[in-house]
Each structure stands twice: as structure tokens, then as C-alpha cells.
Model the fold of this input.
Amino acid sequence: MMMQTNETNSGTYSDMSLNDAGDSWQDLLGITADPPQRRTKCESCKRPIVVCWCSSLPNPPLDIDSAIVILQHPAEEKRTLRTALMLQLGLKPGKCVVYKGKKFPTPKNQSELEPILKSPNSLLLYPSKNSVPLENIRQQVEQSGGEGVGPFTLVLIDGTWPQAKAMYASSPMLHNMRQVKLIAVGTSDYIIRTQPTEGCLSTLETAAQSLAVLENRPELRSLLVQPLHTLCKYQLDNGAVEHQSKEFRIKNNQYPKQIGKRLNRLLNYSNICRPEAKESETNMGDEQHLNEIRNYTTSVTNS
Done:
């Protein structure tokens, strides 16, 4: 009897397993082949409509005499919080052009980009030993004979500092350009990103500040960075936190990591640009690294 009962129970268990398998198979057949519906995105900024910052763009887009050329590292295109697109949409069409690559010009864009890079009216924002303050560029051009008095095309390298340095090193044509630096950069409004020092700016802010100088229109900076303010507000309202610079956190004993050589060098030379720093403390080596801070403010953590 016991053996018969076991056989009966075994058959019952087998039937139940078959029924369960059949139900599971029917459930699988009922799954739609279509992917889950994605959030509707803005056609301009490519962000979900609910966090679109296009309403903060200048309307109509700003018309300027100068132009911006951005040499963008391919990795920047993958970043969701990049700011170069804000600049493109904030200016009149054709006033900001982006070229992607790791060295320039490339065979694909050489015919279009090479004349720009060779023009006496083109300025490369880069911290080389030959760079001069952007604020004094018109005066220096006039003193040199007047060639290339504007309107100017400002060329920016968009990437982290190591990426930008490698792009410059592999692009000999950039070395022959007139090179400039920003002196008065202020504090970044990109508060949801961690900057290395207090004087670091995003690509958008760097371009906006430069255009304000070149065009002699101080209002350009505030107009162009409005989308950045909107982006930061959206992020903060949805769980992001305001980031202090690494410099601030170190000074307040809040930085959890060991300070590396590159960050330590940036911090040391950042102090040179403070108003209270003595002029005698600056030498040729100091100036070169100070320029790195002032001019290459694209994200170090992303950015």
C-alpha cells in the first residue's frame, strides 16, 4: 500500500509540474515583443521632456560677431550632462560648430577646419607658455601691426585635462595658432559637478566668459549659462547634491582620498591667482600651471 501510494503521489506531483510549466509558458507567450515605452525626449536637447532645459535658452538665439569652434574628444559625446550643446543652441545657427576627434584636423574635416585653424583671426584657448590674456588680445593685435583684428573665432578643446593635453600634443597645427588664456574666471555655476579648484569652469561657462570679453558684452555670460542653472535645479530637485570643489573640501578636512601629484600641483598654483598672493611668488613654471587651472575647467570627474 505504501508503495502504491507513493506511485500515486509521484504521478500527482508530475502532473502538477507539467501544469505549472504550461502556465509559465503561456505567461511567456503573453509578453509583448515591443520594448517598454521610453520617456518622450526633446528634439533639441535630447533630454526627457520633463527635464528639458530649452525654455532657458536665449530666445531668439544670440547673434554675435565672433564664432566658436569646439574640438571635442569622442568620450564627451557619451556624457549625459555635457554643456557644449547648450552653447550651440544658445547661439545663432552656425556660430558654434563642433568637430569630434582625438587629433585635428582629420581627413574627414580637413578641408573645412584647416582654413579656420590657420586664420590669423582664430584664437586657441589653451594654457601654453605663449598664451596671452584674452582680455588684452585686441590691444596686442593692434600693437603687432593690426593683422587679425577680428571678428575672432575662438577654438576650444572639449575634454578632461588629460584628454585635452593629448589632443593638443597630437595636433601640430594647433601649436602655430595665436593662443590665449582667461584671467578673471570667477566661480563655476555647475554646482552638481565636483571641480578640482575654485576657479574651474565648464565648457559652456568658459565660452560664455570668453565671448563676453571678445564682444565687449558682459551680459552674454549670464544669458548663455541660464540652461546650466535650470539643469542644476532639476538635478538638485531630484536627489542630486551640491558639490564643493576638491580645493574647498581639502581646506575643510572633508576630502576622503589621498591627494595625488596632479591635484596637489593644481591646488598649489591655484593659490597663486588669489588676490592676496604675492607677485614675487610667481615664476615661469608657476604661470604655466596656473594657466592650466584658469583655462581648462572642463569636468575632471566627468568632467
